[in-house]
Amino acid sequence: MKEIIAVNNRVLDINLSTGKIGTIEISHKDRREYIGGKGLATRLLFENIKTGIDPLSPENIIVMMTGPTAGTPSPAGGRFTVMCKSPLTGIFAASYVGGKFGISLKKAGYDGLMVRGRSDKPVTVGIDNGDVVIKDASGSWGMDTYDFQEARKEEGDWVVIGPAGENLVKFAVIASDKRIAGRCGLGAVMGSKNLKGISAKGNRKIRVADPDRFKKALKIAQKKVLAHDNTGRRLRELGTPQNVRAYGPASIMPVRNFGKSKFDKMEDISGETIRDRHKIKNVGCPGCPIKCGRTGKFNDRELVSPEYETIVFMGSNLMLGDINEIAFWNDKLNRLGLDSISTGNTIGFAMELTEKGLLESDLKFGDSGNIDRTIEDIAYRRGLGDELAEGVRSLSQKYGGEEFANHVKGLEMAGYDPRGCTGQGLGYATANSGATHLSGATHAVEADPLGGGADSYLSPHGTKGKAHFVIMLQNLVEMTNSAIFCIQTQFPFLEENVAYKYTPAPILRFIMRNLPAVAVGTTDISDYCALLSGVLGYKIGKKELRMAGERIYNLERFMNCREGISRKDDTLPRRMLEEFGEEGWAPVELDKMLKQYYRIRGWDENGQPEEARLKKLGIVY
Ligand code: SF4
After folding, report:
1. Which structural domain range is residue 550 located in?
2. Is pLDDT of 453 > 50?
3. Total domains in the fold of the chain
4. Do both 280 and 182 map to the same domain?
5. 463, CA 20 to 30 Å: which among 113, 151, 243, 321?
6. Pick from 63-77, 339-353, 563-577: least confident
7. CB of 290 sitting under 6 A from ligand 1
8. Higher pLDDT, 454 or 520
9. Which atom of ligand 1 is nearest the CA belonging to 76?
10. Is the separation of the CB atoms in 355 and 365 below 8 Å?
11. 138 C-alpha vs ligand 1 centroid, how far in Å?
12. In this structure, are 160 and 245 located in the same domain?
């Protein structure tokens, strides 16, 4: 049996227009500078995609990349990155997903793959231990993501789209098992290529390059994962729906298209209610000891238990509080291949448009009667669903209501209202993909009542220290999504350290609020360095890893700037900047934070990375 020592350093290059299949070698320099996952995906797109192309044209390229940790016992390393130019936002977008596909791809002899061109008929790609075949998939077109994977499981582990991707819904997802690469419409790009799915099967054995160093680092990492209250207990017990009780009272949970700060049925959709009433079982990404995913019984059906984002966008954002209905819609969204965050935002926006007399529809806050049909209408682009399938930005351009259209750069808002955690607002405004919660997510230190609330480490409101923490977290996420470590490892790896754990909370709070540069500069990322050094077999220090995160973030920004992004786009929905009447909300002083942010980043006042910074990072020479 062939062995892989950490990585293959080979990426499959598939052209669906010509049927040509090749490989691209990853150089040692690129591996060191961009690590894997998100980093190498960004670099590959930078080198291979032309500026200004239509995201749904054959010129767009989808990259799927694993990280060096895939297939090793590193905690939560089995996820992979999917990246391309987004049809929803028109700029670059990455999504991250679990499922077995990534590890199987690596075991087949490839760290990742790129898909270019467009097939003239529906196809799948089968990868089996180095053999790659493009197959006719006309008979499978139209199948939902779960049924398709079940019917063709003999061929390997899959990434697949549902009808929404086939119908080019701008927020269609890609599924891998029952895990979802959810944001920015990457499923529509697969659909535009007539690509139903890709299967991978491999039997190579994956070994780390320095077993002794890795074993030592792993022992420490596993101990921390189990010791931390979030990864050792709360995520297993409550999953991400723990955020409902954490963020509902803190005025952060989206309610009524972000028009209200409190939801009176909050308890009905909380993680605790789901745990107590729905016979929850833990499931998770391969090799993950945390297993934050869950299944449960909802009206006697065994279904995937919805995550926090789905619960709030199909629940409180629409003024609906029946968790059985939400779980059923979640199942439907996953099968049809729709992003629950964008779907819930778009339906909520249509409800408010209707209420204000700007749109004729039967959608109404608090009325669940038409939701099921609306989800299907979006996926199959029937009637009004055809317009909803274009997302909030497009709807607001046609029907008005820009003052309550909740998106940034065309990406619908994630489930953390910045009026209750202002640094998160800066995170949304500057995130490369738009209003994602997975980049610069300061909400956890600004307002998580379990770690703070009124006593949170950063003040929920105001601007103090926010730019420093947003940048640190954005860079950190780039690095962890490149290595790959699941974002949830941030809690134990950053917080289960002597300095953090044994410094009294008031002192930590003082340092974080008043000396943010010191606080972020001393953030301990040594567990990531130790694990990655063990996997790859050479020493990767904190400085090198931090710089890689900064490099990847800046490269994507540079690519977005070439697409026309600048200061004018680094903003927030008007509702977030103008409406503060509800309990717990405060103004988001975006301009003030943005100025600081650009200065620290080394970007000019129009938000363009300065040449000196790009040279220092090795992006331009
Ligand atoms: S913590 Fe959850 S999302 Fe992260 S790797 Fe584990 S199961 Fe997957």
Report:
1. 422-616
2. no
3. 3
4. no
5. 243
6. 63-77
7. yes
8. 520
9. 5
10. yes
11. 34
12. no
